[in-house]
Design goal:
The chain has 102 residues and is α/β, with parallel strands linked by helices. Helices cover 31% and strands 35% of the residues. β4 and β5 form a beta hairpin.
């Protein structure tokens, strides 16, 4: 398993951007989503593109107006959803020794 510094370097090498949690929340809110604080998953994360494993924390994005998970079958599939997919692919945060993603 990679250390947080090694995982961060790997993610940056893949073109991802490290941002603050406040910036992540701001970006999500600007497109109508928020992190579902009740859905945190903590533990080893396997990066789908490289196969590397690191310690991570993941939150499920939720629509602000409907309180529905972004993955719900009735959730929106509009331009805001497409922007959410880009955020999920392009940004991460580092919090208390873990890589935070949505």
């Amino acid at each position: 398993m990679l250390t947080v510094k090694e995982a961060e370097a790997t993610l940056k090498a893949e073109g991802m951007e490290r941002i603050s949690v406040a910036e992540l929340d701001r970006r999500l809110e600007s497109i109508g989503y928020r992190r579902d604080m009740d859905s945190a998953c903590v533990g080893p994360v396997r990066c789908m593109t490289t196969g590397v494993v690191y310690t991570g924390i993941n939150y499920n994005p939720m629509e602000i107006d409907t309180r529905m998970s972004f993955a719900h079958f009735q959730a929106r599939r509009d331009a805001r959803f497409r922007e959410l997919k880009e955020i999920r692919r392009r940004v991460f945060c580092v919090v208390r020794g873990r890589i935070l993603t949505i």
